[in-house]
Automatic annotation (TrEMBL), chain A:
Domain Conserved oligomeric complex COG6 N-terminal, first and last residues per copy: 93-197
UniProt-listed Pfam families: COG6_C (PF20653), COG6_N (PF06419)
GO cellular component: Golgi membrane; Golgi transport complex
Assembly and oligomerization: Component of the conserved oligomeric Golgi complex.
First-listed, main subcellular location of the protein, grouped into a coarse class: Golgi
Composition-biased stretches (Polar residues): 1-19
Organism expressing this protein natively: Pholiota conissans
Subcellular location: Golgi apparatus membrane
Protein's job: Acts as a component of the peripheral membrane COG complex that is involved in intra-Golgi protein trafficking. COG is located at the cis-Golgi, and regulates tethering of retrograde intra-Golgi vesicles and possibly a number of other membrane trafficking events. Acts as component of the peripheral membrane COG complex that is involved in intra-Golgi protein trafficking. COG is located at the cis-Golgi, and regulates tethering of retrograde intra-Golgi vesicles and possibly a number of other membrane trafficking events.
Identification of the protein by name: Conserved oligomeric Golgi complex subunit 6
Alphabetical list of SMART domains matching this protein: COG6
UniProtKB/TrEMBL annotation, chain B:
Coiled-coil boundaries: none
Designated name of the protein: Ras-domain-containing protein
Keywords from the UniProt entry: Membrane, Nucleotide-binding
SMART domains, sorted: RAB, RAN, RAS, RHO
Lineage of source species: Eukaryota, Fungi, Dikarya, Basidiomycota, Agaricomycotina
Length: 757, 245
C-alpha cells in the first residue's frame, strides 16, 4: 500500500506520451543533473501490477454512477457508496483529487475500526480457546501418566506371558522327546504282551517285539558307551529289556519244544517258516537251542524207531507194503529192505534238517540271517542230529542181522548168499558214510555188521577149502580130467567172483579192485592147487602108470580158465601160470626123453654125449656101426608113424595148444640130438668107415634140414642152427641142445634178449 | 529288514507244501532215467551221464493247480547187478516213473518185468507213468508210439513220450502221477495219514485241514468229503514245460 502513489489519469497519459519523446532526446540531455532527475522521475514505471491494482482500486472508489460505479465512503455502518453525480466533466475528478487523502484516511480508519472490532471478537474467542486447550493439556497429561502407568504394568504381564510361552514350548519339546524316547526305548503294552503272554502265539508280532527289544538294547548300549557313561535310565532300560528278552527266548524255547514234540511224531516232516525263524533266533542262545534240539532229537529218535519197527513188523497201511520181517527167510531181501528203509529215512531226515537250518542241499542259504550263518556250524548240528536220530535204528538193525541173517546164512551154509550180504552191507556202509559221516553210530554199527558178514563168508569159504583138502583121489579112477571136487569148488569160486564183479561200483582203481578180492582167491585157489598137486603125487606113487603130470596140468589149466573171466584175478593167474610153466617144463623133459626113446635114438645119443674122447664111438657098444644102423632104422620107421605129429600121452591134455607146444619142443630136441649124432658120426676121430653112407642109409639120410621139414619146423630152426654152428663149440652146443629140449619157448626168448643186449 | 522279509517270503514259497509224495524212477539201464530226473530238477540236460550206482535221491516241489506238492525222487540203477538193491526202494512209493528208450526195443520188451516188480513190491495203489524217452531221436525209433500206448492201456498205466535232451514233456509224467495220486486221495483209496502210503500231508495242507475239519481237503475240493457225493478235484491242467520254483 505504501507504494501506491495516486496519480491522475492525465498525468499518466502524459507520461505515457512523453516517453517516446524522451527516448528520442535521450543522449543529448543525459549529462545534465536536472535532466537526470527528471528522467528519473519520468522514468518511473507505473506499468507494474501493483500500480495498476492501486489505480483500479481508486477508480472503483470514485466510480461514476452512469457507469454504475459507486465509491464507497469509508464510513462506519453499512457502506454507502458515494454516489457522485458529475455535473460538470472533470468536476468529479477534481474533487476526488482534492479529497483523496481524506477519503483514504476515512476509509483506512473505517477499515481499522472494523479490524479492531473483528479482532476483538477473535481475541475473546481465542481466550476461550486457550482455556479449553489448557484444560485439554491437563487431561492429556493425566492420560499420559495413566498410560505410562499402564504400560509399566502390562510390560510385566507380557514378559510373564512370553516366559510362559517359552516354558510351554520347552515342555512340549521335552514331551516330544520323551515320547520319542519312550517309543524308542520302551516296549508298548502290546509288545510286552507279545513277548510274555502265552495267549499271543509266536508269529510276526512276537518277532517284531523281539527285534525291537534287541534294538533298544543295542541303542542303549551305544548311548551308554558315550561320554556320559551309563545313566540310571540306561541301566534301568537294560535291566528291563533284558528280562523281556529272556522272556521272549523262553517263549521261543517253549514253542520249539512243544512244536518239536508235536510234529516230531510225524514220519515225514515239514518245517514251517515260523519254526525256521525260531531256530534262527535261538542260535543267539546256544544253550536254549541245544535244549530245543534235544527235545527234537528225542522225539525224532522215538518216532523213527517206532516207524522202523512198524515197517519191520506191520508194514504199510493195511499191511501194504508188506512188513519187512515177512521176508526174513530171504536174507538178501531182508537186509536190503531194512537198509533201504534206513537210507530213505536218512534222506528225508536230512532234507528236514536242512530246511530247519535254512540250508539248501547244494549249500545255498535260503532266507538266512546274515550274521551267524557259518555253514560249518549248521552242518555240525545236522550231522549230530542225524547221527542221533538214526542211531537208535542200530538196535533193531543189528538184532535183525544177527538173529535173522546170521542164523539163516549159517543154516544154509551158503557162501554165495553170505558173500552177497556182505557186499550189500559194504555198499550201504559206503552210502551211509557219505551221507552221515564215518563216525556216526549207524556207520560204525554197519561197519561192525559188515565185518561180521565178511567173516561169516570167509569162514564159509575157508571151511569149503578145508573140505577140499580132506579129499583123497580114487586110485582106480584112470581119468585125467579135473575131479568133481575141483569142478564144484570152481563153480562156487565162479559165483563168488560174479558177485564180487557185480558189487564193483566202477569208481575203484585197479589196485583197490584187486585188493578187495585177493583174500578170497588166496583162500579158495591156493588150497585147490595144493590139493591137486599133493594128491596127484601120492596117486602117481601108487599108480605109476597114471599120468599125474598131465592130470595136474589139466587141473591147473582148468582153474586158470575159471579165473580168466575176471580181470581182478590177474595176480593169482600169474602165480598159477608159474606153477603151470614149471609143470610144463617137467612134462616137456619127460616127453622128449620118451620121444627120443620111442624114436630109438636114446642110447646112441647118450653114448655120443658121454663117451671119452680118446675112444672112438664106432668102438662103443651102442654106437657100433651095426647098432647104429639098427637105431637109425628104427628112427626111420618111427618117422613114418603117427607119433611124429601126435603124442597119445599129450592128447590127454585138455589144452590142445599145450599138447602141440610140448610135442614140438620134444621134436626140436629130437632133431638136435639127431644132428648131434650125425656130427659125431662124421667126426674122423670116431672112426666110422663110411659115415656118410651109414647115415644116408635111412631117412632122413643124415640131412637135418629134411628132419625139420618132416617135423614141419624147418625154416626157423635151420637159421638158428646155422647161427649156432658159426658161434659155438661142441660143448656149448650140447648145453644149448639140453636147454632147448627143456623149454623151447623160454630159452628162445632169453637167447633173443641176450643177443639184443 | 526289508530284504530279509522278502527272503523269508521266498523261503516260504519254496518250502511249504500241501503234500509230500515219494516216487521211484525205474527202467532198463541207459534209457535215460537219470537224465530225465536231472532235467526235471535242474531244467537242463545232464551231460556225460554215467550209470547210476544203486540209488540216488533228489527232490523238487511242483504246483498242480492250487496245490503245492513236494516230490521225493529216487533214481534207481537200471543195471541188473543193482536189482537186488533197487528193488528195496519200491516199498512205500506212491508213484513210479517207468522209463524205456524209444530207440531200444529191448528196453520196451522188458517193461513187463519192471512193472510186475513194481506192482508186487510197492504199495498196491502205486501210480505208474510210462515214459518213452529220447523222443528227439525220431530217426532211430524202434518202438512206435501206438504200440507203447496200447501196452500202457492194457497194463493200466499212463503213457507219454519225452526227451530229456530237449526237455519236451519232462515235467508232465511227474505231474501226471501227482494228479492221479491226488485223485486217489480224493476218492479215499489212498490215505496220506498212514505211514508207508508214500504220501503225506505237508504243513500247508495240515494247517488248512486243522483249521476246518480233519476230513476236509480245504481248498483242494472246496467241500468236505463227509458231506458225501462225488467230489471232483479241481486240478487245473498244467502247461508242460512251465516252470515252478
Ligand atoms: N538223445 C537223447 N539221449 C538221451 C536222452 N536221455 C538220455 N540220453 C542219453 O542216454 C544215456 C543214458 O542216460 P542215463 O540217464 O544215464 O540212463 P539211466 O537210465 O539213468 O541209466 P542207469 O543209471 O544205468 O540205469 C546217456 O548217454 C544220455 O546222454 C534223450 O532224451 N535223448
Ligand atoms: Mg541212471
Amino acid at each position: 500500500m505504501a507504494s501506491l502513489s495516486p496519480r491522475t489519469p492525465s498525468s499518466i497519459a502524459r507520461t505515457n506520451s512523453s516517453q517516446s519523446e524522451r527516448k528520442a532526446s535521450w543522449t543529448a540531455q543525459s549529462r545534465n543533473p536536472v535532466s537526470q532527475r527528471l528522467s528519473k522521475v519520468l522514468g518511473t514505471n507505473f506499468d507494474s501490477e501493483d500500480t495498476r491494482q492501486a489505480l483500479r482500486t481508486l477508480s472503483e472508489l470514485y466510480a461514476t454512477t452512469s457507469k454504475g460505479k459507486e465509491v464507497q465512503a469509508p464510513t462506519s455502518g453499512p457502506t454507502q457508496p458515494m454516489v457522485l453525480t458529475e455535473t460538470v466533466p472533470g468536476e468529479l475528478a477534481a474533487r476526488a483529487r482534492k479529497n483523496l487523502r481524506r477519503d483514504m484516511e476515512l476509509q483506512l480508519a473505517e477499515g481499522s475500526r472494523k479490524f479492531l472490532q473483528a479482532l476483538g471478537e477473535v481475541d475473546t474467542k481465542l481466550g476461550a480457546l486457550q482455556t479449553h486447550v489448557a484444560a485439554m493439556r491437563t487431561s492429556c497429561d493425566e492420560a499420559e501418566t495413566q498410560l505410562a502407568l499402564t504400560n509399566e504394568s502390562s510390560k510385566l504381564l507380557l514378559e510373564r506371558a512370553g516366559n510362559l510361552r517359552d516354558e510351554r514350548q520347552e515342555v512340549e519339546d521335552k514331551k516330544t522327546i520323551i515320547t520319542l524316547f519312550l517309543a524308542r526305548f520302551t516296549l508298548t503294552e502290546l509288545e510286552l504282551q507279545a513277548l510274555t503272554s502265552r495267549d499271543v502265539p509266536i508269529g510276526q508280532r512276537f518277532f517284531d517285539a523281539m527285534d525291537k527289544t534287541e534294538r533298544i538294547r543295542e541303542d542303549c548300549r551305544v548311548l551308554m558307551a558315550g561320554e556320559d557313561g551309563s545313566t540310571k535310565a540306561g541301566l534301568e532300560i537294560m535291566a528291563s529289556t533284558s528280562t523281556h528278552l529272556e522272556d521272549g527266548y523262553e517263549k521261543i524255547l517253549r514253542y520249539c519244544s512243544n512244536e518239536f514234540r508235536k510234529v516230531g511224531r510225524d514220519s515225514q516232516l515239514e518245517v514251517s517258516p515260523v519254526m525256521k525263524q525260531t531256530i534262527q533266533r535261538l542260535r543267539k542262545r546256544p544253550e536254549l537251542l541245544t535244549e530245543a534240539l534235544s527235545a527234537l532229537s528225542e522225539t525224532r529218535q522215538a518216532t523213527l524207531l517206532s516207524s522202523f519197527i512198524a515197517a519191520l513188523t506191520r508194514g504199510g497201511p493195511s499191511g501194504y507194503p508188506r512188513p519187512i520181517e515177512l521176508h526174513a527167510h530171504d536174507p538178501m531181501r531182508y537186509v536190503g529192505d531194512m537198509l533201504a528203509w534206513v537210507h530213505q529215512t536218512i534222506a528225508a531226515e536230512r532234507e528236514f534238517l536242512e530246511s530247519l537250518f535254512g540250508i539248501k542241499s547244494d549249500g545255498r542259504m535260503v532266507g538266512s540271517v546274515r550274521n551267524f550263518s557259518s555253514k560249518a556250524e549248521e552242518e555240525e548240528w545236522i550231522r549230530e542230529l542225524m547221527d542221533l536220530a538214526v542211531g537208535k535204528l542200530c538196535v533193531p538193525l543189528k538184532a535183525g542181522f544177527s538173529v535173522r541173517v546170521q542164523q539163516t546164512v549159517r543154516s544154509q551154509e551158503s557162501n554165495i548168499v553170505s558173500y552177497k550180504i556182505a557186499n550189500l552191507l559194504q555198499f550201504y556202509l559206503m552210502t551211509m558214510r557219505r551221507t552221515i559221516g564215518e563216525d556216526a553210530l549207524l556207520s560204525t554199527t554197519l561197519k561192525e555188521i559188515t565185518d561180521v558178514a565178511y567173516k561169516v563168508f570167509y569162514d564159509s569159504i575157508e571151511a569149503q577149502s578145508q573140505t577140499l583138502s580132506r579129499i583123497r583121489f580114487d586110485l582106480d579112477d584112470p581119468s585125467l580130467t579135473p575131479p568133481n571136487a575141483i569142478l564144484d569148488h570152481s563153480q562156487i569160486l565162479r559165483e563168488v567172483m560174479q558177485v564180487y564183479q557185480s558189487s564193483l561200483l566202477g569208481t575203484e582203481d585197479e589196485d583197490e579192485i584187486n585188493a578187495g578180492f585177493n583174500q578170497v582167491l588166496d583162500i579158495m585157489v591156493d588150497p585147490a592147487v595144493q590139493m591137486c598137486i599133493a594128491n596127484s603125487e601120492e596117486k602117481m606113487k601108487a599108480r605109476p602108470r597114471w599120468d599125474g603130470q598131465v592130470f595136474i596140468l589139466n587141473c591147473l589149466c582148468y582153474l586158470q580158465s575159471v579165473l580168466s573171466t575176471f580181470e581182478f584175478t590177474t595176480q593169482k593167474r600169474a602165480e598159477i601160470q608159474k606153477t603151470i610153466d614149471q609143470r610144463i617144463a617137467l612134462l616137456t623133459t619127460e616127453h622128449s626123453d620118451n620121444v627120443l626113446r620111442d624114436a630109438g635114438l636114446w642110447e646112441v645119443a647118450e653114448t655120443c654125449k658121454h663117451h671119452e674122447t680118446d675112444e672112438p664111438l664106432s668102438r662103443l657098444p651102442s654106437t657100433q656101426p651095426a647098432d647104429l644102423q639098427r637105431a637109425l632104422q628104427r628112427f626111420s620107421m618111427w618117422l613114418s608113424g603117427l607119433d611124429v605129429v601126435h603124442s597119445p600121452r599129450l592128447s590127454h591134455l585138455t589144452v590142445q595148444k599145450m599138447h602141440t607146444q610140448i610135442h614140438q619142443d620134444a621134436l626140436v630136441r629130437l632133431a638136435k640130438e639127431y644132428k648131434m649124432i650125425c656130427e659125431e658120426v662124421k667126426k674122423p676121430a670116431n672112426r666110422y668107415e663110411a659115415a656118410a653112407t651109414l647115415l644116408g642109409s635111412e631117412r632122413p639120410f643124415g640131412q637135418v634140414h629134411l628132419l625139420w621139414q618132416i617135423f614141419g619146423l624147418e625154416d626157423k630152426e635151420e637159421e638158428e642152427e646155422s647161427s649156432d654152428e658159426g658161434e659155438d663149440e661142441d660143448e656149448d652146443e650140447e648145453e644149448d641142445t639140453e636147454e632147448e629140449g627143456e623149454g623151447e619157448g623160454d630159452s628162445e626168448e632169453s637167447e633173443g634178449e641176450s643177443e639184443e643186449s | 529288514m526289508a530284504i530279509n522279509d522278502y527272503e523269508a517270503d521266498a523261503t516260504e514259497l519254496l518250502e511249504t507244501y500241501d503234500f509230500l509224495m515219494k516216487y521211484i524212477v525205474i527202467g532198463e539201464a541207459g534209457t535215460g532215467k537219470s537224465c530225465l530226473l536231472h532235467h526235471f530238477t535242474h531244467n537242463s540236460f545232464k551231460d556225460h551221464s554215467q550209470h547210476t550206482i544203486g540209488v540216488e535221491f533228489s527232490s523238487r516241489t511242483v504246483k498242480l493247480g492250487e496245490k503245492r506238492i513236494k516230490l521225493q525222487l529216487w533214481d534207481t540203477a537200471g543195471q541188473e547187478r543193482f536189482r537186488s538193491v533197487t528193488r528195496s526202494y519200491y516199498r512205500g512209493a506212491a508213484g513210479a516213473i517207468l522209463v524205456y528208450d524209444i530207440t531200444n526195443r529191448d528196453s520196451f520188451t522188458n517193461l513187463g518185468r519192471w512193472l510186475a516188480d513194481a506192482r508186487t513190491l510197492a504199495s498196491p495203489n502205486l501210480v505208474v507213468v510210462l515214459v518213452g524217452n529220447k523222443s528227439d531221436r525220431e530217426d532211430d525209433r524202434e518202438v512206435e508210439w501206438a504200440e507203447a500206448s496200447r501196452w500202457a492201456a492194457e497194463n493200466d498205466v499212463h503213457f507219454l513220450e519225452a526227451s530229456s535232451l530237449t526237455g519236451e514233456n519232462v515235467e508232465a509224467p511227474f505231474l501226471m502221477a501227482a494228479r492221479a495220486i491226488l485223485l486217489a486221495i480224493e476218492s479215499g483209496t489212498l490215505d496220506p495219514e498212514k505211514a508207508g502210503s508214500g504220501v503225506s500231508y505237508g504243513d500247508r495242507a495240515l494247517r488248512r485241514v486243522n483249521s476246518s475239519s480233519r476230513l476236509s481237503f480245504g481248498s483242494l475240493s472246496g467241500s468236505a468229503r463227509r458231506r458225501g457225493g462225488a467230489v471232483k478235484l479241481k486240478v487245473k491242467s498244467w502247461i508242460p514245460g512251465s516252470k515252478c520254483c
